[in-house]
Structure formats: C-alpha cells, structure tokens
Specification:
The complex is a heterotrimer of chains A (138), B (503) and C (139). With 503 residues, chain B is mainly alpha-helical. Chain B has helices at 5-19, 24-49, 74-93, 99-104, 107-123, 127-145, 151-182, 187-193, 200-218, 226-230, 236-260, 266-289, 294-315, 318-349, 360-363, 365-379, 385-399, 403-429, 443-465, 468-482, 484-492, 496-502; strands at residues 55-59, 68-72. Chain B has one domain. The longest helix of chain B has 32 residues, at 151-182. By secondary structure, chain C is mainly α. Helices cover 67% and strands 9% of the residues of chain C. In chain C, helix 3 (56-62) packs antiparallel against helix 5. Chain C is elongated, with a radius of gyration of 18 Å. Classes of the chains: A mainly alpha (138), B mainly alpha (503), C mainly alpha (139). Chains in contact: A-B, A-C, B-C.
Chain lengths: 138, 503, 139
Amino acid sequence: MESLSALTIGALAGIAVYLFLARDLPRVLIGFVLLGTAANLSIFAAGRIGPFVPPIVEPGMAALAAEAANPLPQALILTAIVIGFGLAVFALMLVVRAQRTFGGVDHSGLTEAEPADSDARAAAPPDSFRPAAERKAA
Amino acid sequence: MLIVAPFLIPLLAAIATALLRSHLGAQRTIGVAASAALLASGLALAARTSDGAILVSAMGGWALPFGIAIVVDLFSAIMISIAGLMALAVSIYALGPGAGRRDRAGFQPLFHALMFGVCGAFCAGDIFNLYVWFEVMLIASFGLLVLDRTREQIDGGVRYVVLNLIGTTIFLIAVGLLYGQLGTLNFADLARVAPSAENQGLLAAIGVMLLIAFGAKAAVFPLFNWLPAAYHTASMPVAAIFAALLTKVGVYAILRVFTLVFGHDAAFFGPVFGAIAAATMVTGVLGAAMHYDVRRILSFHIVSQIGYMIVGVALMTPAALAAAVLYVVHHIVVKANLFLVAGAIRRESGSFALGRCGGLWCAAPVLSLLFVVPAFSLAGLPPLSGFWGKLAVIRSGFEAEAYLLAATALAVGVLTLYSMVKIWNEAFWKAAPVGARVRPWTRRERVAVYTPIAMLACVTLTIGVWVEPFAALAHTAAESLLDREAYIAAVLGADRALAEVAR
Amino acid sequence: MNPSPILRLSAPMLLWLSFAVSIYVLVRGHNEPGGGFIGGLLAAAGVLFYAIAHGAATARAKIRLSPSVYCAIGLAIAAASGAPGFLTANGDYLDHVWWFVDIGSTLPLGTALIFDLGVYVTVFGTVSALFLALVGEEA
C-alpha cells in the first residue's frame, strides 16, 4: 500500500512538472492542481495508511476508537484543499484575463513586463551611459 | 488579548473597509487608524517581550502541541512593529496620487488582508499555520499586484502567481513529510524531537525542501527571478509594501525554522546558506547595475540585500543573528522609503525611466534631500542605519572567520553605492530633459507623499545616530532565537509531559 | 451562451433547493460530516446554476448584496465568534463557549456553531464572487 501511494504521488508530481514546462498557461495551471493533489496525498500518507475506521467519535463514546484513522492529516488536507482551490480559481481568472488581454494563452507572448528589446522602450540607458559615438549617431 | 491583536486589527480593518465599499473617505480613515493601531500593538508586544519573555496562546483552547499555537517572542514583536510602521507609512502614502482609482478597485480591503497574512505569519507557532498565513498573504498580494489590470501588470502577475504557486506547493509537501517523519508540526515540539530523530538525512532533505519554499518567497539566489519581473509593474504603494514585507516574511520563516527546527544541523546548513547569501548579494547588485528604470533598480536591490540577512543564518552565531535582525529592520524601512521616493520621482518628472527624468535637484530640493537618506543608508554610509547593519554583518563574518562572505558583503556595498549614485545623477542632478512638463501638485498630494517619506527618513536617521537600543534589542532577539530550550519550555510548559505521553 | 429551456426553468428551483440543502448540511456539521465550508459551496453552486441559466447580472441581483459584502459579513461573524473566548478561564481567542439550552432534551449551542455560520457565509460570498466573475467573463 505504501509503495502504491508513493508511486501515485510520484506519478502525479511527474505529470505536474511536465505540464509546468508547457507553453500555454492553462496546462501550467492544471499542473499546479495535480502537484497540489500530490502534496495532499503525501500528507495523507504521512498519517499512516491502513484499514481504519473514520475518525468520528461514536455516540455514547468518550474517545476515538483504537482503530480510527489519524484525524490530523485529514484536517490539514481539508485546509490545504480549500487553499489550493482558492489559489487555483484565482490563477484561472488571471489566465482568462491574460488570454483576453494578450489574445492567446501561450506565455511566450507575454513580454510586457520584461521587454527583451529594452532599447526600444523607456527604460533604455540614459545618454550619459552610452558610448560617445553612439550618442552622436542618435 | 494583546497577543491576537496583530492579526485581529488588520482582519477587522479588512472587513470594515470591504463593507464600506462606496464610502472611500471612511475606508481611508479606517485604513490609517488600523495601521496606527497595528503599530501600537506591535510596540506593546515588543515592550512585553523585551526582556526575552515569550507570549503563548493556544487558540480555541486545544492543548499544545495539538492545538494552534500563537507565539510571540521579541523577534516576532519587532517584525510586527516594523510591519505596523510600514502599514502606516504606506496607507498615508496611498492617499496621494491615484488614490481614487486605486481605492475604487478595492485597494483598502486587500491591503489589510495582506497585513493580516503578514502579521499572522509573524505570530504563527506551528509550521502548518505558517503555511496558511503564507497563503492568506499570497492571495491578497495577487489581488494587489493586478489592481490596475494593465497589460504590464497581468504579465507580471502571471509570472508572480505561477512561481509562487509552485513554491507554496513544495512547502506543503515538505510539511507533509515533516509530519510523517516527526509526528508533530508545532515549532516547539519539532525543536524538541528533531535533534533525536532517527533519520537525520531525511530530515535534512525536508529542510532543503523548506529552504526552497522559503527561498522562493524571500527571493534568494537562484529563485529570485519572479521578483524583478513583477514588482515594478505594481502601483507604487503596493510595490512599497511588497518590497518592505513580502520577501522579509520569507526571511523571517528562514530565521525561525532554521534556528528552531534545524538548528542542531547547522554544520550542514551553514555552508549552504553561506553560498546562497554570497550569490544572492552579488547577482542582485549586478542585476541592478544594468537597469535604468528606478523601480527595477530598486527591485534588484531587494534581492541583493536579502543576501545580507541570510549571512546571519549561515554563521549561526549570536552576533550574526543579531546583525540579521538589525539588518532586516533597517532594510524594511529603507527599501519601502526608496519605493515611496520612486513614486514621488515619477510624480515629479512623469517617468520611472532614468533617461527621461532629471532636474529634480532644482525642481524638488526637499525630495532630493529625503532621497539621500535612504539611498546612502542602503549603500551603508555612516551615520545612517545601513552603516550599522552592514558593520554588524561584516564584523560577525570576520569574527566567525568567514572572510570570503565578509569581503563579498563589503564589495556589494560599493556596487550598491554605484546604483544609488546612478539614480542621483540621472534623476536629480542632470538637467531636466527638454519639454518635460509636470502637472502641479495639489496640497493633499504633497502632504500624503512627503509625510511618510520624511517619517521613514527620520526612523533611518534615528537608528543611525542612536543605534545602541536597537542593537541591544536585536541582540536579545537573536539570543532568544538561539535559546531553543526556553522556547520549548515557554510553549509546551506543563503540557510537555502530555506531548511525551502522546507519542 | 444559450442555456436550454430545462436549465432556465429549473435554475430557480435548484437555487432554493441548494440553499435548503446547504443549511441542512451546515447544521448537520455540528456532530456529523458536513459543516460551513461544504454548505457554503452548495449554496454557491445554486447561484452558479442560476448565473449560467440567466446570466451573471441577474444572479447578482438575485442575491441582493454584492458577493464581497457576504464575504466580509461572514468574516465578521467568524471573527466575532472568537470574542467570547476572552471571557473564559484561559482567556484565549476562539476558546469555545457553550450554552446548554433545555427544550425537552438538551440543545447544545456554542460559539463553534457561530464560527461555522461565519465560514458558511464567507465561503458562499467568495465562491459566488469567483463564479460570477468567471461566468461574466464568458458572456
């Protein structure tokens, strides 16, 4: 069971990394969701794996049954799922917005924040930083 | 009640400003008042912890180490105070140019949500809680970064979001592995069991994963690329608060976790941090040297300065950690102030590009003087705060016989001066470009822009000329960071026996 | 977008049905699986259906307040539920305070329920805000 869950986590993480390398942003986003799932599974595996009953105190009992699963990783995963969901939805909205703004989801087209051709833009070196010959030509 | 104030105040401010959506005036009043209250709560906590005391609260009444611990020691209190000071400066500055558009887009609730996450992270007593605060901070910062929804911001936002998402997921995986290895997530309990863990190799691997996660947040080499790609696109108050606090939360997490949980393994992590610190200092300052946009120069300098703070964890001596604490305080004030000045340069000359500014020495002499204070402090000239910060870092380097690290820190200081002189020459000293026309300032803009800049410059000067109390506080904070037994005793206390039984 | 007549007609019913189920799930969460988060999601799912069928603007009008206001109200409720904790012996924020009301059998009411209600409203507000923004983008 341990090796199976380790393989699952590894496969998910591998697929996620593959998707991160894709050019279009929705794939990167799906990669993030898969990596989040891998993270959640790894927390789950950290809390022991085995044939357990749900960690709910039965009516009339004062404590968890001995064969109950560890409730803490489940609580952590619940929190992590909620947070991951929020982040993924926000990222999705950003991707939708980027698609509308730039007319595509291919991130190689996103060069607005760091223009490769800096001379063409306002952030070019001031005159005093250019060689004298170039300054005259300009 | 005081111990929850640092995150309850921003939370209530975020709620109130979100409810008062159309009343921009009321939002701004609440914003400034809440920031002042946050500063006051931080100072009160610092007064309570200045003798090295550690305040603990178990939220919801669950016994520690199982419940959610809120722990404030002197280092946390210092960070909360300085975060409050930044919040105050930035919320005053945000009343200035562009306030109407910014506030209608929802700046105030998001800003306080960001402070909620930042201050929560400073109070967190367990590592999963720290993760949750990171995410609160991250979601708020996403919203703030793309506030104006310009093309540039969406592009910068995508870079920021993707890299931070990967970073936090790695953090989450590391938390899971840590729990699997040690069976606890409370910092104090982790510090108690980590030295005696069976598989120290696996523990070190988990530490490296955490280092990647925190390093991406703190923008250390080689994980800093998102920062200069994104920060300069944000609107100026947002960039200032990001520059002041976001990376420093990463630094805080590194200082906290690698002293408390991995402190016993300093022999392994010390050289790693040393290499990271040197590479971060050098790449940051070289990146700044090749840029001619004020915001991008300053963004790269954030990266460079983070290296100085990491030196503290690399050496792990009381003097080095005290230097790191002092440096963090100095750097937050100075860097936020430089971003605020950059906003004023833009307002005065119409551009962030050095080629298009000029003549500010004549046009705005007060601004020029106010720029000199943080700029020379950043470069480390006496008698400003940066001098003492750099002196402490470099001296602790020599004392620990880390000559290469200390020499790097010295050389990087000189290159920092080059960048600052570049801004000075281009924006302030050279003649104004022909045909530059500036919309006259309104009185309100002038007050909103100059008050926080002058306030932060005064703080820098005060630390510079009257450094003893600050250095003494930093020293106490560093000693309590290294005193793991005191932290464990303060948090677990009587419940320590319980933790033993449960395992 | 061109929703089918079936969806258009069933959306209002689904909206109220999901609200009813969500309240049930919220209260059930007291002692059994359920709770504020899942309840809020269910309620927001009803709004999503409505928005797909009748457009984001109509759905926005249907829930009257802006989603972000719901979010703020929910956070306020959750934050306020922690305040009674200051009065307990430990004096820690968010400490549970209970009232055992006797109505034939004992009805345990506590600050945990108020907190859960806050989570419910927050999640409802946040998730509807995200859904409505995405549906609005689509149109």
